Amino acid sequence: MSELINRPEYLSQLIQNIDVDLVKIVTGIRRCGKSSLLSLFHQYLLNNGVPDSNIIHMNMESLKYRNLTDYLSFYDYVSERIAKNGKTYLIFDELQAVNHWEKAIESFRIDFDVDIYITGSNAYLLSTEFSTLLSGRYVEIRMLPLSFKEFLTFYEFDTQITTEEKFQRYLQFGGMPILKEYKFNEARSNQALEGIYSTVVLRDILQRNNQSDQLTLQKIVMFLCSNIGSITSPNNIGNVLSNEGDIKGEKEKNIAGKTVNKYIDMLRSAFIFYSVGRYDVKGKQLLKTLGKNYIIDIGFRNMLLGYRDTDRGHIIENIVFLELIRRDYRVYIGKIGDTEVDFVAEKPGDKIYIQVTESMQSPETRERKLRPLRMIPDNYEKIVLSMDRNYINSYDGIKSINLIDWLLS
Q1: Of 197, 327, 345, which Cα lies nearest the Cα of 273?
Q2: Which three-class secondary structure state does DSSP give residue 132?
Q3: Which terminus of the chain is more solvent-facing, meaning fewer CB atoms within 10 Å of its CB: N or C?
Q4: For the segment 32-59, what is each residue's pLDDT rounded down to a tens digit?
Q5: What are phi and psi of 234, to 5 degrees?
Q6: Distance, CA of 357 to CA of 384 (rounded, Å)
Q7: Is the pTM of this model over 0.85?
Q8: What CA–CA distance (Å, rounded) separates 270 from 263?
């Protein structure tokens, strides 16, 4: 239970939705803390006077429920245990283990006085049949690994370690909560990440997509990890891998492109990667071609490729992307003329343009990062994030902010 004390923003999202007539669904990669969050929520209900008899809390990956593989047996089992008086809180962990679970959930809503909370480790949970059945009647809470701010409260550090050194650890180990047990031991941490990664690949991807090939999937993962923050398309990934003889592209290269696209969809569904589209800032429209892919946690990338300090630019870009998602922004890559803005981040009534770079010290970098921002005709906030700590905090109205300060703001 103590593991999740430091994740109040997710708990408060659940608390804000208590007794609202929507199914609450917590999604996210395996081991990012969803089950602990539900345990914490369970405790919150007890502390706030809900009797134990009015809470049904089941983890569907436990062998205790091995016979409840389809929605009918699941429905019957739970129905018998629903309290006769007052509202019953139904908390189901890893519900993707139950076939057609959505039919049972819809039926609980109709037949009983219940409030329903669910977690799942892959997006098939929210696939089309489910969305259709529960259309508009659920709220999704997306859980991510630890932010840098959470990372600082989650771990105990020696008092003499600077925030910069802590950030260096974050860049190296990432934010999967399980790593706390290994106290920054690199070999043990990598073993733990390897275990999570294998489970995701084997259970959430290959088991569900039996036509897929583990070797091809692995090659695509390695390619995406090596090219974080670079603009790519399925076709050009397909071409690179076909030329290496990895995907049978025969005479037609576009077969490989389709294959790559299918695999990237699988990786997105298992919450390992996010794909980000490009947005034409002047034309105000989404562009169909080319985008970027970011990994859910930098620890996985370092585990797969080895940690290299030379990649810091891409790593910090990935961290900024995840932080924008945490802050509820919709994120795009900006295109303006022949130049790029790293991120265009929007939410209702708010938009920011962000450039990310390790340092603004060199005149070339400075010019490259500022030029696209200067070309944007509107008055929304424009920011450059870097690791610099200097006295310049603005270039002609474009803010220059230290990345660590921004992450902790």
Answers
A1: 197
A2: helix
A3: C
A4: 999 999 999 999 999 999 999 999 999 9
A5: -55, -40
A6: 8
A7: yes
A8: 11
Q: Which tokens hold the place of 316?
A: 């910090």
- Give the single-character DSSP code of 53: G
Cα(177)–Cα(191) distance, integer angstroms: 14
Q: For residues 315 and 175, is the Cβ–Cβ distance under 8 A?
A: no
Q: Which of 143, 169, 145 is nearest to 156 (CA)?
A: 169
CA angle 214–300–26, rounded 5-degree value: 90
CB atoms within 10 A of CB 250: 9
In the numeric block, which tokens belong to residue 62? 């436990």
Confirm if 270 and 200 have CB atoms less than 8 A apart: yes
Tokens matching residue 64: 């205790």
Residue pair 407/147 in contact (Cβ under 8 Å)? The answer is yes
- Residue type (1 letter), 254: N
- DSSP, collapsed to helix, strand or coil, labels residue 135 as coil
DSSP calls for 331-355: EEEEEETTEEEEEEEEETTEEEEEE
Q: List the structure tokens of 33.
A: 């803390």
Q: Give, rounded to a whole angstrom, the gap between the first and last alpha carbons of the chain.
A: 28
- Residue 148 Cα distances to 115, 246, 409, angstroms: 33, 37, 11
Query: Strand 330-336 to strand 285-295: parallel, antiparallel, or no bridges (unpaired)?
Result: unpaired
Phi, psi of 370 (to 5 degrees): -80, -35
